[in-house]
## 1
Amino acid sequence: MSHEPLTQELPPHMRPEKSFQGLILALQRFWADKGCVILQPYDMEVGAGTFHPATTLRALGPKPWRAAYVQPSRRPKDGRYGENPNRFQHYYQFQVILKPNPPNLQELYLESLAAIGIDTRLHDIRFVEDDWESPTLGASGLGWECWCDGMEVSQFTYFQYVAGIECFPVSGELTYGLERLAMYLQGVDNGYELNFNGREGAEKVTYGDVFKQAEEEYSRHNFEHADTVMLKRHFEDAERECRMLLEAGTPDPKSNDQRHKMVLPAYDQCIKASHRFNLLDARGVISVPERQSYILRVRELAKACGAAWLETEAGGKAA
Amino acid sequence: MPELLLELFSEEIPARMQRKAADDLLRLVTDALVAAGLHYEGAKAFSTPRRLALTVTGIPAHSAPTREERKGPKVGAPEQAVQGFLRSAGLASLDEAKIQSDPKKGDFYVAVIEKHGRHTTDILAEAIPAIIRSFPWPKSMHWGSGRLHWVRPLQSILCTFGPETEDPEIVRFEVDGIASSNETRGHRFLAPDVFTVRRFEDYAEKLEKAKVVLDPERRKDIILHDARDRALALGLELVEDEGLLDEVAGLVEWPVVLTGTFEENFLEIPPEVIRATIRANQKCFVLRKPGTTDLANRFVLVSNIEARDGGVAIAAGNGRVIRARLSDAKFFYDTDRKETLESRLPKFEQIVFHEKLGTQAERIERIASLAAAIAPLVGADVAEAQEAARLAKLDLVTEMVGEFPELQGLMGRYYAAAEGKAPAVAAAIEEHYKPQGPGDRVPTIPVSIAVALADKLDTLTGFWTIDEKPTGSKDPFALRRAALGVIRIVLENGPRLRLKALSSRHATMLGRNDSVSNAIADELIAFFHDRLKVQLRDSGARHDLVDAVLAAGSEGAAQDDLLDIVRRVEALGAFLATDDGKNLLAGTRRAANILKAEEKGGERFDGAVDSALLVEPEEQALAAAISDALPAAEAAVANENYAGAMAALAGLRAPVDAFFEKVLVNADDAAVRVNRLRLLAAIRSATRAVADFSKIGG
């Protein structure tokens, strides 16, 4: 099908191909129109949009769910002190989750590309095999990298397992790499030169204006100064807290209400442990066998949270 | 005769799975037809990124009726047997069975099971859904709220059946809510509308109009020819790449070949790196200047659409991505060369090779020691072999190899050469991984040979010491490949190596005591013998002679000298192809069989032949021939003159034949008889100087 760009009625500075925020707004409008709950970013440090409980936990259980949100994602190891124009330790993902996936999810995805100004009669869109896996979340799915003229602009996944639990119904997950997409749309090769607010001249704010200093500072933190003794302690604290909360939220066998009472706070601790691990990894203090054991420990937390989620109302458990 | 058309239309199927899926579909459907008694004339399957299609021609419209008689129990048999018979034959009572009389066995029941012929459409409507539900995808998934598993969501099924002259009918069935129809769609972007089709010819034609080239071979052909033409037009040559061509043909339904450009200064990067970058990340081809290995700053991409602007935007977009990738590669290349390879060694102290085999640094030191031991045996300079072994793995921690693991070794070579290392050392860094598989070339430079052998023997000995040997189909550390690599390096270069001493010494380095090391080395040599047989079999040589040669009793014969074993096998094979060889083999077997029968009681006939008891001229002649041949054969073997050893044995053929013709072993005189049996034993032991003939197959 041919998707004509739908962006012409917008003022220039609001257009997705002219401004970074315009791109985010266009995607939000598009998916809001498709019935998604438009959420705000989760208020914790995560490595990817998938970690947001609106994806990880909501992908589990029988209840339908549609949500879209921007998620700032932190990958401490990807820091380059602001010197590499393509790699950041902090970047944005636009995340969409639809449970169950509608049968026309590919068409919806292509329509969303049209909505941000990508004309599929002019650009070569391809679905290239790429199976997704998150060892820390015990999650995996089948799908594709979506290419636009040879550039990977999104990840498209049908979740098969999350937190070690087989997904039914299956959620479709779309992840747009916003910086890359914006670079493509704006025709810039350097991420820091992205036009953030769509204005020109003195009013123009670039991505670099907003984030370059942060990239430099966080790179120093991630690679040189983060206190590894403290991080290890925090990892263990989070691990303990997660288990304690899951235990405390387990219903009394004599109670009438057999639902779990405290999954979300426990899952926060799982997220926390995961990020502490990522920081330790960036600091280079984790050996190869240790690395595997850390991943396994986070996965055990994720699995315990996933299993408990199914015992909650949102997870589909009746009172 | 009627034909079947089946299309399974889905979301994008991974390129690497398409070909096998088409083959599987063809096999499963035609097997089901044959199982239902339907024979067909021809079948062909096709695949694109979004569809598997199958046409089967010349299928009858009905299956033939069948009649089967099933024999039951005797009349008057116990009730249990009767009930079992009725159940298995599908009869309600014995009234439905016939009684047959047999003059010997008496009367018994017979069930006559008659099946009417069935409509082929009914058979297909039953078989195809079952095939879809259990299709052997290497990896499949479910989606939405459905329960069907497919490689990616299955969207529609087209299935028609009918004769050429009429409109075929739809074979009606439903799989997980998807009802079969006579409808499909064209290209995702160029012709997305639904259309109906009748039979295969009509289908392929309409697809072509809807911008889908159904046949993957034709897509490959179009891509290859257009790419060559494009290259030619630019005054360049396409760097052909069969694997990439296959993959790209599986990523498009309507191939459109375009070219793009990158900056000339990227050509400073090694060509292999440029190619790996462009191939792995962008699935594009590279071009070279005609008649050279120099790449041009151009690439060929295969688009899936005919774009409104003729592909300008697509080529520009791909060019931007390739430039970004090449910038990364150039950055890696420049960064990597800021430090020497050697300076990276300490990093390997932190990397565990295997928890029971220590760190990579320890492994590197072991390989270096072994390479130094092997070097003089293969004509390599010891210091160079040792240096190359110490450098060989160090590129594993470079940025470039981190990004493109397939460039391991090659980058080490570039970096070592840039540091001014000796050419043989730099070459050995690349070549020590070789041969990677049966099609890969074998290193020929002495330093490379030393390091390649050391690397493989370290791996083999190492995993043998911790008892991680390949079993059945499991060989996670690729030990069979390592052994085969050693065999090919030895056979193709001809060094004389005593593998047992080398691996036993190496096991000692791995901390095993002498007797354990010795035992490990023996086991490893047995493994080499097995792999040698496989290698000889695969190259069409007489692998069945390996055991015969290995069992030969001569003292000088080395069991761990692969080249020597193969030479003996070759000489024996050549001998056995002659008349003398064939007859001597037959005679020796005859002698061995007689001895086997006589030795059953435990008696042995290995004693010396008493010449005083030799009566007949033929037995005297044989005894004389043996006493000539045995020392001659032994001496020839000791000199590794295997053809000479065979010639010595050939001298036995006539006397052996004459002996069996004229002399009766079972003489009346017991002493003469024993003496003749000893003569037979002497034949056996004479041939054993070269090979144990009883181990020769065939």
## 2
Amino acid sequence: MNATTRETTAPVDRRAPARWSRVLRSRGWLKLIRLLAVLFMISVLTFLSLQLLPGDPARVILGDQANDPATLAAMRHELGLDQGILARYLDWIGGALSGDLGSSYVTKETVSSMISSRLPITLELVILSQLIALVLAIPAGIVAAINKGRGADHAIGLWVFGVLSTPNFVIGVILIWIFAVTLGWLPANGYQPWSEGVGAHLGSVILASISLAAAPFALYQRVLRADYAETLGRDFIDVARAKGISPLRIVFRHAIRPSILGLLTVTGLTVGVLIGSTVVVENLFGLPGLGAGLVSAVQNRDYIVVQGMTLVIACSFVLINTLVDFLYGVVDPRLRGATAGNREG
Amino acid sequence: MTTELTAPPAVPSGSRRRGRASRRRSWTWMEILSATWLVLLVFGMFLLPLILHLDALEFDAKARFAGPSAEYLLGTDNYGRDLLARALSGAKVSLFIGLGSTFLALVIGVPIGTAAAYFGGWVDAVISFVTDVILGFPGLVLALVLTAFLGASKTNVMIAITAQAIPAFVRMARSQTLALMNRDFVEASKVLGTRPHSIIARDLFPNIADTILAFAFVAAGRAIIIEGGLSFLGMGLPLPQPTWGVMINEGRQYLNTDPHLILVPSVFLMLSILSFNVLADRLRADATTDGGGKGA
């Protein structure tokens, strides 16, 4: 979430721990087992979260209606509270694997249909905000690196630092104030599907995407600036200059390739962070995505929905991070078999 | 940063760092302003309500949406409540939860991470696995769901924010310790037969302390962001306790007419997080030029 941690967390673990855990890291299929184990533990924790509720979950969920013994018994049965905890877990995870996560107590809608209608909106926000962040961060990073230590670098750095220190909902409110209230160009909130027209649709998601893009933009700019500045100091750049290759060509061709790897990694790892950030931003902009669904489920004490959505969010987060690790090995063959280093949540 | 030639610290101890303090670069105006803001905020939130007789909850029907005046220095909100008083009351919550949960996460996470790196093997494998599992939940989602299930109270919000912060400290401490494990002074201690807890406490902790402290400032800023997000979503401390997130959320509907309702808490929030980040950058720069922990 916060980019300023990156520099201090960078040292990658090159030390070989005990033998079998080294095997776990080097062999692809054992990595897969580790991944499955992580997913399994996530499902167990998500399942057990219901146990954190003070008192009988059925009573907590029902609230006032818990006084009716028949309703209470029905709810206890629906939650499986009349069974042992292991049976309940197996039942729940079995359902989850076949796409049945139960149904909302409030709306009666099934959790999986809620997720499938909400997920595309969240994904669109994540993709749009990644694009915005990259489009802004790449030039900002390169300009800062070329002018390292000079005015432009300091100015961009200060701006990035400010963005980094502003929570996304504050950025969102500022954007609403500028573009919706003062200028009146865009709606302050509400969602327009594609069927309402491309302009209306994009208009309804663009401010949210910019709010989401702010933190990744700052992170990417810092990462790219550092890597790019390092590349510019390498010998082969001097050689290229000495050969008389034009400075522009060096900047845009020779220096980019070696500098882009760090950026690629954080871009991938940020996808998961963005899914987390949508929780607040979707709520602010009234967009019916997964994050807003989670919040309204929490507010309605709709715990079955909370469980289901948390499971989906956490699993996609882990799977995306694994995919990034994998792609990292594809992009940089030297790192095959190693991990992509530290992941910051 | 200046490339300062430093001999590797043969005997790591507090005196080493203190002796070097005089050679550090002077404070920039950003750093001075940041420290000043945090100090003012701490004094302000305790003293100003007493001096100015502020009440964060008192309604004033005659002064709704008032601008800044002698009576209400930063104006009032939709119920005529003093925005300065509310912002200062929110500062108590943000700083208490931000610093408290960061402190707890540090105290829990750093020993675990150091132990993982020191012992390696299955200890490391288990700790890394558990860390991976917890990091599978995005920070805000974990905090939100934990608060939802535990119930929103000061303690539970603190627990939730601490829980999402611990893995980062574990990772930090682990990677920092790993960088030290092959250094001669650690090897020497081992050869001499020093007990593990003593090596960890006397050789490893002092050397990772600078970097961890720098990271703690980042984590404090992050904790304040998450606390703000939780209260913005109505899942923070129970009402009527004013927090910055709650104030921003309540001010949303008056954005058209009275943006100062949001401006006041937003400025407090941004300045506080910015201050923590500026100071963290400074501490990290010191830690890396110091030769102690291995920087990036």
